[in-house]
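Retry 2 of 3 after timeout on previous attempt. Resubmitting structure tokens to design endpoint.
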């Protein structure tokens, strides 16, 4: 299995993975599936960031994209540019252990060589597997926003996790 920098050719696979979670889970608070044009604009913004942001994909042994990870803007204001939010998604049928860890490791290594100094992740609760993955890589929970989202006829809380050291 390979982890590599994503290309525009990967966007349909990335979109398919993400849109499954939009339709079937509250892991993302999006209600509507992403159109490919939106995914292209997202990709262009992240890849045109002077080395701040990265988009990675994980391929299976047949070269099919089975997961992706990226870091992007934490908040819009310029002073936040040294902080970045990370996101990892695996194809919903991938249950092999270590796939998320491999993506996280590679993303954090890329970020360590960038101008970003802190990483954040916002995780819909409950999600013990995601919390454990982040803690394994030194993230600490720094807050909970209670009932901040509403999807599938129920309220959802999110945890905010922070990693303060991204040294190489």
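Retry 2 succeeded. Sequence:
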């Amino acid at each position: 299995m390979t982890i590599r920098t994503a290309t525009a050719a990967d966007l349909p696979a990335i979109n398919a993975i993400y849109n499954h979670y939009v339709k079937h889970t509250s892991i993302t608070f999006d209600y509507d599936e992403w159109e490919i044009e939106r995914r292209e604009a997202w990709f262009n913004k992240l890849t045109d960031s002077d080395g701040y942001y990265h988009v990675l994909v994980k391929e299976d042994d047949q070269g099919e994209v089975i997961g992706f990870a990226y870091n992007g803007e934490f908040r819009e204001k310029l002073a936040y540019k040294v902080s970045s939010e990370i996101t990892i998604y695996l194809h919903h049928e991938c249950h092999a252990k270590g796939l998320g860890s491999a993506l996280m490791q590679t993303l954090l290594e890329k970020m360590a060589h960038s101008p970003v100094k802190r990483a954040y992740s916002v995780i819909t609760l409950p999600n013990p597997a995601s919390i454990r993955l982040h803690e394994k890589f030194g993230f600490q929970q720094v807050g909970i926003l209670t009932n901040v989202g509403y999807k599938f006829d129920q309220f959802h809380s999110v945890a905010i996790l922070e990693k303060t050291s991204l040294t190489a």
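Attempt log closed. Strands lie at 2-5, 54-59, 65-73, 83-90, 118-124, 140-151, 154-163.
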